[in-house]
Amino acid sequence: MMVRLKQLLITTRQTTEQLGFSDSVTFLYGPVGTGKSTVARLIDYCFGGELERTPAIQQEFVAVQLAANLGDYHCTLERAATDTQSVRVSWSRHDTDIGSVNAPLAAGDAPVLGEEVFNLSDLLCFLCGITPIKVRKRTRDPDSPMVRLSFRDIWSYC
Predict the structure, then answer these.
(1) DSSP secondary structure code for residue 153 in this structure
(2) Which residues neighbour 95 within 8 Å (Cβ) at sequence distance 6 or greater?
(3) What pTM does this model have?
(4) Which CATH superfamily groups domain 3-129?
(5) Mean pLDDT (the chain, rounded)
(6) 51 close to 10: Cβ distance less than 8 angstroms
(7) What is the structure's pLDDT at 96?
């Protein structure tokens, strides 16, 4: 699974901040309380995570946009502070395969793309060119149903 972060654009009530990522390694450093952990949390938020509502986030945060390469696709993941149900994902590949969808965080009954993409996690796996991994819901029960690992589960292990 190839994921390369390119840029994070953070919109607050007073300003828009842009953070570029290196093609190899990006170091975030600075004094305590300058937002290093918030950058990681905002990346996770773009991938469907919850956002810790600190006083600064509650008062200032408006939206975040993450530009990343997922597999062969150039993608933009956009999420506003008020978006609790979906992430807006836009993608392109070779200037011919272009798409955009509001990807729900939770899978619904109908696919949002093709026949196998039901939520944000499925879409991110699709764009990365991988089939979602299935594991037993209860590892010690051989009759337990198979469930998909989420993109964020895989991301956290990596």
Answers:
(1) H
(2) none
(3) 0.86
(4) P-loop containing nucleotide triphosphate hydrolases (3.40.50.300)
(5) 89
(6) no
(7) 79
